[in-house]
Amino acid sequence: MNEEAVATASAKTCEGCRDIKRERARALAAGDVQEAAALTTAMGVHLRVAHEYP
C-alpha cells in the first residue's frame, strides 16, 4: 500500500475497527494479554467480513 492509500485508509477508519483497536489498547494497558489476543482475532474476522480482505 502506498503512502497516499495509507493516509486515506487512516482517515476513513470504520467504527468497528476503531472500537476493536481501542479495546485492544485498553487490554494491553491493563496487562490483559489474553483479551488483547482475542481482540486481535476479532480484528482479523472483522477485516475479512466487513472489509472483504482475503
Describe this structure in words.
This protein has helices at residues 3-11, 15-29, 33-50. The chain has 54 residues and is mainly alpha-helical. Helix 2 (15-29) runs antiparallel to helix 3 (33-50). The chain is flat, with a radius of gyration of 12 Å.
Question: What's a concise summary of this model?
Answer:
By secondary structure, this protein is an all-alpha fold.
The mean pLDDT is 86
Q: Helix/strand/pairing class, anyone?
A: mainly alpha
Provide the low-confidence segments as ranges: none
Largest sheet: none
Number of helices: 3
What would you call the shape? flat
Distance between the termini: 15 Å
Helix content: over 70%
Order of helices and strands: HHH
Count the strands? Answer: 0
Beta percentage is under 5%
- Using the CA coordinates, give the radius of gyration: 12 Å
